[in-house]
Amino acid sequence: MELDWKVCSRARLTRDARFDGKFFIAVFTSGVYCRSICPAPPAKEKNVRYFPTAAAASEAGFRPCLRCRPECSPGTPAWVGTPNTVSRALRLISESGLEEGGVEALAERLGVGSRHLRRLFLRHLGATPSAVAKTRQLHFAKKLIDETSLRMSDVALASGFGCVRRFNAGIRKVYHRTPTQIRRLARQRTLQPENHYLFRLRFRPPYDWKGMLAFLAPRATPGVEEVVNGMYRRTISLDGSDGYFEVSLDEGSNVLVVRLQFGDPRSLFFITERIRTMFDLNADWGAIVQSLRTDPVLVTQVESGPGLRVPGCWNGFELATRAILGQQITVKGATALAGRMVSSFGRPLSSANGLTHLFPTPEILADAKLASIGLTGARAETIRTLARAVCEGRIIFERVVDSDAFLNRLCEIPGIGKWTAQYVAMRALGEPDAFPSGDLGLLRSMALGSPHQLERQAEAWRPWRAYAAMYLWRSASRHRERGNRPAASSTQKGTMESMTSSQRLSLVV
Fold first, then answer.
1. Would you state the pLDDT for residue 499?
2. Number of alpha carbons in the 13 Å side-chain half-sphere of residue 404
3. pLDDT digits (tens, 9 = 90+) for 158-167
């Protein structure tokens, strides 16, 4: 991956937060590597070298800076400048993809040879898959040392080292200090009750937090999720342990504050990575906006509301179920149905500080009598069929390598069409180019008569069509609030009348 040293130099000297995590600065005189926002006095240009990733800097023999803490950077944008193979490999690594079988198993899942995968990583990221995974592991361990009061043995397990001896050796080798010495150096650390954690997750500005909450609030499943006082809250269950988390914006910095209650520290890496994905914290707005600004329809919306992100989800099955519930009804109606489903089939949870239930599992919904909550027979059967497919392993929402194949399998379930599949791709798979072109709200926002016309115009938005959809949906929502929904043209009206019921969908889930 080629870096423009002039751009990097300007960002370094101005401490530009927009470049945080997009490259790292290695300083020959100190032997450390830093973020673009490091508060240390800037070194002379002749004494620095720029790397595309923290792993590349680490492989070159530099250690992380203890002042700017590279482990707290927003993360390297996985989609920019990398082929699909590398992007999908990074996604698998973020979901602990190297725990079983190493690089060889990862390459096999991606359908390439391990040597070819290493070459791709070196070319685009400057480090091998093993180095990337190891750096992420060490950075998360450092974050736990600094920001929690976990025992070091628990930190070792939570960060994937397996044993304290390897953990101690790895930290000492990289940071030239013991874990205990690093904890003593932590500038700020608030003691939390047992099984309670506080994490600060950084992002690149701008970030439209109000827009994120405005999208999530009307879709929050009663008992499982809520948006209150500028905060998102929800219950979670993972590997036999239950808990909940709260996410809010730190107004004074580019940080989302996560307060988590969960009993198993071994799941902390997965949970924090999933929350980063849920709130789209790795997105690089500078790269996204370049495509969207080229369209005269979007440019005004983008300029007036920078930083809009694509909301993810905690659980893919939950999102897909909610998408089915929301077909052809209003947001309010879909939320009410979801609340009834949770109260009837969800497991009660008393320790979630006001939230009452966990979302029902596929095993529960596979044979649930869903007509009792007001679902039609066809819709109830679609949810049961999806739940059975998940239970049998035919549909797996985690570690998806080939999204097209996954979506094709999803569309084989009666009642799930292209619109639902693309919506799942947007929010559950994190596909930045997913685009539900048959959505009625998108067609109305663009005053177009058919999905084919919309797809043709959306070609200019690639590979960020999901972000374009978010802007168009927000525009349609504001028009509805003002009571001046754009009128459909005669061509559009005729096209809508000829659509099947599964095609006449708008964003209601």
1. 43
2. 2
3. 998 889 999 9
Report angle CA 257, 397, 86 to the nearest 5 degrees: 80
Tell me if 116 sits within 8 A of 107, measured CB to CB.
yes
Helix (H, G, I), strand (E, B) or coil at 232: strand
DSSP string, 146-202: HH----HHHHHHHTT-SSHHHHHHHHHHHHSS-HHHHHHH-S------TTEEEEEEE
Cis peptide preceding 206, ω within 30 of 0: yes
Question: Could you say which of 8, 34, 72, 313 is catalytic?
Answer: 34
90-106 pLDDT tens trace: 888 877 656 667 888 88
Tokens of 35: 């973020």
| Beta strands at 347-352 and 355-358: parallel, antiparallel or unpaired | antiparallel
**Catalytic residue, candidates 20, 146, 280, 439:** 439
pTM: 0.87
In 3D, which of 357, 328, 385, 343 has the Cα closest to residue 501? 328
User: Half-sphere exposure of residue 71, counting CA atoms within 13 Å on the CB side?
Assistant: 28
Read off the pLDDT of residues 325-345 as tens digits, 9 standing for 90 and up: 998 888 899 999 999 999 999
Q: In Å, how far are 143, 159, 194, 419, 447 from 182, measured between CA atoms?
A: 10, 16, 21, 50, 58
pLDDT in tens, 30-40: 999 999 999 99
Count CB neighbours of 123 within 10 A.
12
**Backbone conformation region of residue 403, classed left if phi is above 0, alpha if psi is from -120 to 50, else beta:** alpha
Residues in the chain: 509
Task: Give residues with Cβ within 8 angstroms of 192, minimum separation 6.
Answer: 148, 149, 198
Specify the 3-state DSSP secondary structure of 116. Answer: helix
What are the structural domains, with CATH classification, of the chain?
1-77 (3.40.10.10), 87-190 (1.10.10.60)
Is residue 34 part of the annotated active site? The answer reads yes
